[in-house]
Structures are given as C-alpha cells and as structure tokens.
Write a sequence for this structure.
C-alpha cells in the first residue's frame, strides 16, 4: 500500500487534471511550470547521465502487521556522475517555504567529492518555468568545477537587460525587473535557512547583515502571493545565475497546456500546431 506524503503535491506531477489544447505562451517568466516541473527537470537530468534515488520513508501503526505498513514516498535525489552536484525534488517534504511558497527543487554543488558538505545551494518553488531550471542545470553539469566562482554580478544583470528588463533605479548594480514590474531579480541578503559554505552565514550577529546572494520572484499583484520564487546562496557562481536569468527573461515563447490563474490575463497565446 502506497500513499503520497502530501496528496496535494504528488511526487510525479506530470499530467494536468484535464487535457487542454497546447499553446505557445509568453512572456516566459509568467507562464508557470505547466504542472510538469518534476518531469521537465528529471527527464533532462536522466539524459545527462545523472543517477536518481528515491528516499522512501515508512510508517507503521501500533499492532499493524509488517505487510500493512504504509510507505510514504518522499525526496527524490538526482546525482551527477562525478558526485560534485545534485538536485533534490523536495516538494513532498516541504522543509520550508520561500516567498510563502513551498520549495520544489533544491540544487547543490561541492568542490570535493570527499566532503559531505555543499559549497552552495539554490532553491526553486513550483510554477518557475521548467525551461529556466533546465538551462541552469545544463550549465551546472557542463562546469568542470561547479563551486569555483566565475565573473561578477554584472553578468546577471547583463543577461536580463539584453532581453529588455530594466535595472532597478535605486540599485542599478544589484537589481532588475521586467518591463511590467512583475518579475524581479535582486542581489541582497540571503533569506534564513539557505545553505551556503560562506563563513559569514555562520558568524553574522543578529543585528548584522549576512552574506548576499541573488533572489528572484514574480509578484503578479502588489501584496498578493508570489507566482514563483528562487533563491541562490551567496556562493553560487554569478555565471550560473546569469544562465538562469537569461533563460528566465528570454523572449522565446514556451509550450503550455496549463496556465497560472494569477497571470492568465497577462499572457500572450498562440495555438500550437
């Protein structure tokens, strides 16, 4: 007997509740994940030769026979061939929230396979377009040394301004937003619980600013819940964040059958095929 840990968030959210005609949709950053954020990423990682492991948790009630024990599927872990990088589908566990949204994918990398600790981690919630996370992971896979920093913050800002995004007027060197002011990218203090090897994250006092990292989110209505959010630890290389930013701000349409309710009216659509 098997049951998901959280029925509302299945382990494999591949199929929408009802079949809908596919459409080409833009802008990408408001198009959602089509209900396929797990499949889109897991299929790509499999094609790159990453190994997947399912961490299964069980629960047994008192006086329950072993054969009646309930199995709770939980985290799915994908590991690169060199074991220097990994991606976890953690939505079933919901360890914590980002922008009031549960974390779906956690991506990490380390410098040395003998060390059990990640050098950096990045976190992504549901409704982030799968194409964006796929591009980020492909770039991570292609790196010989995934924990070594390359380039500076300008790489990230250049990636989005090349697609028409606007620099933050107050912090032009640390932030940008799309022309409709819905999606944002900012280099600022990292939220609590974001894992990172930067020693400043461990020694900062309560009244001191901690290390800074890139944060991204889409807020369709001011004060309303975010559509998606992403957080990068302070040690995530800027060139990798730039790949994420370039994919997020890309003007190329994406194929969708399921559209987010909060951005449906903001999307341009054209029938596919």
């Amino acid at each position: 007997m098997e049951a998901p840990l959280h029925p509302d968030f299945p382990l494999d959210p591949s199929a929408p509740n009802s079949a809908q005609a596919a459409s080409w949709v833009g802008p990408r950053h408001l198009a959602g994940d089509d209900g396929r954020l797990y499949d889109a990423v897991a299929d790509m990682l499999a094609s790159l030769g990453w190994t997947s492991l399912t961490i299964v948790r069980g629960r047994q009630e008192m006086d329950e026979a072993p054969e009646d024990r309930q199995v709770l599927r939980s985290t799915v872990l994908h590991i690169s061939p060199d074991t220097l990088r990994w991606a976890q589908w953690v939505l079933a566990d919901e360890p914590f929230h980002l922008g009031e949204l549960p974390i779906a994918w956690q991506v990490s990398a380390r410098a040395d396979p003998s060390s059990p600790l990640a050098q950096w981690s990045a976190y992504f919630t549901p409704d982030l377009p799968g194409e964006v996370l796929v591009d980020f992971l492909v770039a991570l896979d292609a790196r010989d040394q995934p924990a070594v920093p390359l380039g500076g913050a300008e790489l990230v800002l250049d990636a989005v301004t090349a697609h028409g995004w606007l620099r933050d007027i107050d912090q032009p060197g640390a932030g940008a937003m799309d022309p409709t002011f819905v999606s944002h990218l900012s280099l600022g203090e990292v939220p609590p619980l974001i894992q990172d090897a930067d020693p400043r994250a461990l020694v900062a006092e309560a009244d001191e600013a901690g290390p800074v990292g890139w944060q991204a989110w889409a807020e369709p209505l001011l004060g309303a819940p975010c559509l998606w959010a992403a957080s990068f630890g302070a040690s995530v290389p800027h060139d990798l964040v730039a790949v994420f930013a370039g994919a997020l701000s890309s003007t190329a349409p994406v194929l969708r059958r399921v559209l987010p309710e909060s951005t449906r009216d903001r999307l341009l659509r054209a029938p596919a095929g």
